[in-house]
Structure formats: structure tokens, C-alpha cells
Amino acid sequence: MSDRKRAAKGGLNYPGIGNTQQGNAPGVYSRVRKEVRLGSGLALYRRVARGILGWELQRRAGLRVRAEAPTAVPGTRVVSGFGIGPFRLDAPCEVVWVRHPAPDGAPQSAGFGYGTLPGHPARGEESFEVEIDSQGEVFLRIQAFSRPANWFYAVGGPVARAAQRYVTSRYIEGARTLAAEGTPP
What we know:
The protein is an alpha+beta fold. The protein is built from five helices and seven strands; from the N terminus they run αβααββββββαα.
């Protein structure tokens, strides 16, 4: 489906819908790419994959999550937000792609990407993937491309970029705690 048709259908408000699946970004968008090693083993990979697909990274990052489905499915709308009371900032998104873990073997990856909807402070896409390589090493990869949704958020550019770095670091910490669960001390 073309970007134009998807935008008309789902309200996605940026070019390059689905580009985080291939690691691409439109030229005029700021990019984020973080990759961290989480450990090794198929059990750890599966645990983190379940957490990613079940919105656990967002919750562990301190975001309130309201999703139409308990797991990420293309077309699912999700609103994550942070703040308190009238100072809450909601960020509506729609899942644009999902990759599920394969039953066996390595290498493979699992995760999803979601794109912004009207009302989000940015326009763009973000993805969360866990990968197990042929040696059994497990990595988390977070990719995003974005730009401010309007002049108000553009004026706060440095603050918005700092907030994105902070939330990304919280996603990474959430993945590390997921990876550590069920592992002997």
C-alpha cells in the first residue's frame, strides 16, 4: 500500500512509512540508531521479543500505554504518554510492521515499528527489535526518524531531542531488565 493510501486510511503523517524495517529514513528527518548487547541464548532472545511485542519496553521506560491490542499487530493504535495530570503529553502511534520470532534457530530478529499519528509531538517512525546472531549473542536495536510536528515543538527542539535521548535510554534499561529476568545471578 502506498504512503498516501496508508496516510488517508490510518492518519499516519510522515513519508517513508515502514522505512525503519530496512533502517532507512527520509533525508530531512533526524535519525536515532542505538544498538546494545543484552547477553546470549535463545531463551533470553525469546523473553525480550515477548516483552517488545507486548509493549513492555514502553511500560518499563515509565510511559503509560493504552493499546488496542495486547501485542503489536500491524494497524494497532497505541497511545503512550508521560507526565502528570494536565501536564501529560500523549503520543499516538500506529504499528506499521511486525516481525515475530521464528520457532527455532539463529540468526533471526523480532520486533515492530510504529509511526506517528496526528496529536503526536513529532512526525516519524520508531522501531524496537531484538536480534540473535549465529553465535547466540542477543542485541537490542532501536531506530527512529523524526521531526517536530509543528512550530511549537520545533521551537523546543533541543528539549525534544534531550527527551528522545532520555526515553531511548529508558527503553534500553527496560530491555536489560527483561534480559536479566530468569537468569541466575
